[in-house]
């Protein structure tokens, strides 16, 4: 890393750690911009900082306070076995409070990342020394990342500010945008990203998003809005791109070189692997904290190879516990073998399946869902009608995407099934738990964010 890049990243880290970014003053930001956006290597350093945050600090981190672990407990994928991890216990019992530090982290780190994206967009646009090709790819990447972060923030909290500037005078007075407006902003950012990003990023490990990564996330954004035609259109663009294929061997799907990975995070150090493996794979029985729930285990169909390949067990001789075994390297290895995957092709197939069925294209929906089932060594589904096929697709999403970035909870939420499913399984579930509480500290800083989400 060049010395100037290192100094910039240290400066940015100090800047972000000292104050909520809504309170950062203009002169410091302007000074930073003069140094960072003069050459592509230093802008790459800004993105290195963003990806380090996604890997180690943001909701995408793989530890016990990351999205995958907490929302897996919040829904019906994971059982919590310990009384010592209070944050996880609160999520498991659906008793998260506005003072809970994890929601504060979700909020603050996310908006710090949004600040970095906005600063990059402003600085790159104003640069007189960067080439147009570099400007396009950097801005496309920043638009994508801004959308990615806002997508999760709104699915955590509902109505939130969609921040598009670093102007502290504007940001100190922001109010919550309605969800429809947020999704329109997500669409606009991802359409810009698609236009600006290259088809490949000169990175065969997919550590940085490209045009197809943006297209995949856009298909998800349309799916969540019920915009079936555009969800299908975008999903089929990714599937038909030729750049990705479903990995036929279930043992290799989560390997670093998997052909179905659209976007994954570098682990930051050669030989390091994922945080998810280190928290989910127990070293002895009984597991210290977490195991797969019976609700998930009982959902696997007989003969589903994912049950054999993506679930493992440990026993003390009298009792057996089951755990996720998608990522398998819980310790460092000679070279990095697994990286945390944020987007993969199987999800895009299931988006195409669901959107097809919602449009009445049942045959196309069957083809897409059966591609996922065939890999799992399951029989092909035949004609089972619109509702039957939708239920089958929801089931496939539950099995295919378990313990991956909260997909299960967000699916229950967007399809209106959370109360039916979680209300029966979770003794403390309340319908208002569909949203997390806004952090109390943020409401005190900016009363324009009031009112607090219902139920808190």
Salient structural properties:
single chain; 456 residues; mainly alpha; Serine Threonine Protein Phosphatase 5, Tetratricopeptide repeat; two-stranded antiparallel sheet; 6 strands; 53% helix; disordered N terminus
Structural commentary:
- There is one protein chain.
- This protein has helices at 3-18, 26-36, 40-56, 67-74, 86-92, 101-126, 132-157, 168-171, 179-196, 211-225, 228-239, 275-280, 294-297, 305-309, 345-358, 362-375, 385-400, 407-414, 418-425, 440-445; strands at 78-80, 261-264, 290-292, 311-315, 320-324, 341-344.
- With 456 residues, the chain is mostly helical.
- Among the domains are: 1-197, Alpha Horseshoe (Serine Threonine Protein Phosphatase 5, Tetratricopeptide repeat), CATH 1.25.40.390; 275-324, no CATH class.
- A two-stranded antiparallel sheet has the order 1-3.
- Strand 4 (311-315) and strand 5 form a beta hairpin.
- Helix 3 packs antiparallel against helix 6, helix 9 (179-196) runs antiparallel to helix 10 and helix 10 (211-225) packs antiparallel against helix 11 (228-239).
- The longest helix has 26 residues, at 101-126.
- CATH architecture name of the domain at 1-197: Alpha Horseshoe
CATH topology of the domain at 1-197: Serine Threonine Protein Phosphatase 5, Tetratricopeptide repeat
Radius of gyration: 22 Å
Overall morphology: globular
Total number of helices: 20
Adjacency order of strands in the biggest sheet: 1-3
Low-confidence stretches: 1-31
* Overall pLDDT score: 92
Q: What is the straight-line distance between the termini? A: 46 Å
**Can you write the helix and strand succession as a string?**
HHHHEHHHHHHHEHEHHEEEHHHHHH
């Amino acid at each position: 890393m060049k010395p100037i890049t290192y100094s910039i990243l240290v400066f940015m880290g100090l800047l972000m750690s000292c104050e909520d970014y809504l309170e950062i003053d203009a002169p410091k930001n302007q000074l930073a911009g003069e140094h960072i956006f003069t050459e592509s290597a230093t802008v790459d350093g800004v993105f290195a900082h963003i990806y380090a945050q996604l890997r180690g600090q943001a909701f995408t981190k793989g530890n016990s306070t990351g999205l995958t672990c907490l929302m897996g407990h919040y829904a019906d994928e994971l059982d919590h076995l310990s009384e010592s991890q209070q944050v996880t216990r609160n999520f498991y019992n659906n008793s998260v409070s506005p003072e809970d530090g994890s929601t504060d982290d979700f909020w603050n780190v996310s908006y710090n990342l949004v600040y970095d994206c906005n600063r990059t967009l402003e600085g790159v646009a104003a640069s007189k020394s960067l080439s147009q090709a570099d400007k396009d790819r950097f801005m496309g990447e920043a638009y994508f990342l801004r959308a990615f972060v806002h997508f999760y923030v709104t699915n955590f909290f509902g109505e939130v500010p969609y921040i598009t500037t670093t102007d502290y005078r504007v940001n100190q007075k922001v109010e919550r945008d309605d969800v429809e407006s947020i999704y329109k902003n997500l669409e606009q950012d991802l359409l810009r990203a698609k236009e600006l990003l290259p088809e490949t990023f000169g990175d065969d490990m997919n550590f940085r998003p490209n045009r197809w990564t943006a297209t995949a996330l856009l298909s998800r954004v349309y799916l969540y809005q019920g915009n079936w035609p555009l969800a299908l259109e975008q999903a089929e663009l990714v599937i038909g791109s030729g750049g990705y294929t479903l990995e036929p061997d279930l043992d290799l799907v989560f390997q670093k070189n998997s052909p179905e990975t659209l976007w994954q995070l570098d682990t930051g150090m050669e030989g390091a692997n994922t945080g998810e493996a280190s928290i989910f794979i127990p070293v002895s029985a009984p597991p210290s904290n977490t195991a797969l729930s019976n609700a998930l285990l009982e959902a696997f169909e007989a003969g589903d190879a994912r049950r054999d390949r993506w679930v493992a067990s440990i026993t003390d001789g009298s009792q057996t516990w089951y755990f996720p075994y998608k990522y398998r390297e819980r310790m460092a290895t000679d070279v990095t073998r697994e990286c945390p995957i944020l987007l993969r092709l199987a999800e895009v197939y299931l988006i195409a399946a669901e959107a097809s069925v919602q449009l009445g294209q049942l045959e196309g929906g069957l083809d897409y869902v059966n591609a996922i089932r065939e890999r799992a060594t399951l029989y092909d589904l035949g004609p089972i009608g619109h509702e039957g096929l939708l239920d089958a697709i929801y089931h496939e999403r539950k099995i295919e995407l378990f313990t991956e970035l909260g997909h299960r909870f967000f699916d229950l939420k967007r399809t209106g099934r959370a109360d039916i499913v979680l209300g029966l399984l979770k003794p403390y579930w309340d319908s208002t738990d569909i949203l997390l509480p806004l952090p109390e500290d943020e409401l005190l800083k900016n009363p324009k964010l009031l009112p607090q989400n219902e139920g808190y």
